[in-house]
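Entry for the shared binder. Reason: the reviewer on the internal report wants the predicted structure included alongside the sequence.
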Amino acid sequence: MSLLVVGLSHRSAPVSVLERAALAEDTKVKLLHDAVAAEPAAEAAILSTCNRIELYADVDKFHAGVAELSTLLADHSGVPLEELTPYLYVHYEDRAVHHLFSVACGLDSMVVGEGQILGQIKDTLSTGQEQHTAGRLLNDLFQQSLRVGKRAHSETGIDRAGQSLVTFGLDQLAQAIGGIDSFADWAKDKRALVIGAGSMSSLAANTLARAGVSDIVVANRTHARAARLAEAVGGRAVRMDDLAAELPNADIVVSCTGATGQVIDAETVARALASRTSPSPIGLLDLAMPRDTDPAAGALDGAHLVDLETIGTAAQDAPMAADVDTVRKIVSAEVAAFGAAQRAAHITPTVIALRSKAADLVASELARLDGRLPDLDDRERAEVSQTVRRVVDKLLHAPTVRVKQLAGEPGGAGYADALRELFDLDPQAVAAVSSVTRSDEPAEPNRGRA
């Protein structure tokens, strides 16, 4: 296993850099294919969320892999490599596995314990499968990360260690505007405008509806998607061209689109405030990356803006649940188990090739015996054949079982090489078995979103 991840997140880079490095969907697909076309990488997957961009790859050379993946991230994001490099982090092999498992459990999120990352990991795996850039290693890795994340949430109280970005951001608005710690106690009978119809916007709309918001308006570039979301929460759908007309009526505006430019500028907010009949301020929650809302809008009298940058600052002071330590132990145990399984799987093709060679030798010697002892009857011939095969199986059983056990231990990768050398196995035969094994393993489909 030569797993490498190169990326940047809210922990390593300011929001301004993350904004510039954000990738459009078509850019992600091109980056995936360019990554697997590069010499060091055999597989690739991209985990891209509102506060992280990470490129995972199975590489055969560490330094060349780091250089290539870093350059690809810079080229496709449009941020010059010399500007991007100070914010990049690198994890390799077990550390890379540990990193992804921690991310899946919500330990590396802005708000510790949030569960939306599991949906984003599903999307990453689905894209890698659809584009045929995720092979056995990355399929195993991302599927296992989903299981680890679900285990952490089901076995511990990690969910209580933090909240989703939506809930945390809405609580920040409630504290700033209403002087109330809980959004649920402040939102009742408020009017809301949700901009976007993706997974984050859907979560926001449902959160608003459960809190008792009296009127929910959904705006999206694709009106049909806005209509579906609005119907699900008992609201109404409008087109993006209607935003300026809807803003004066909204008490809460939640925005999370995939737009590359600003959706709400300060001038539009100023006009909305001027024509607003309600004396209460407008709360603006921007969960998009890059930002949908002009930061200058937050400085206007009568408006309060919470975005990913302010959420990140506030979340640093959020209380950490004791369950976080338990989740860390789960992650460590799962990383060890995953590494052992991968190392054991690495030697399987060699064991299969050894047994295949032994079977060929048995068949050859039995054929030679047929020529030298042509008078054996069928019963005698079958008994000799069974005896020879039994002897070979017994001789190979203990060493092949033991070598699989040893290969699963740390530092066990060299046992496959030793087995090939001791039994003079053809490297091409082992490679052929590896290829067949990978092609026969079905990938688990993931199409859901959080």
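Summary line for the report: Residues 438-450 have pLDDT under 50 and may be disordered.
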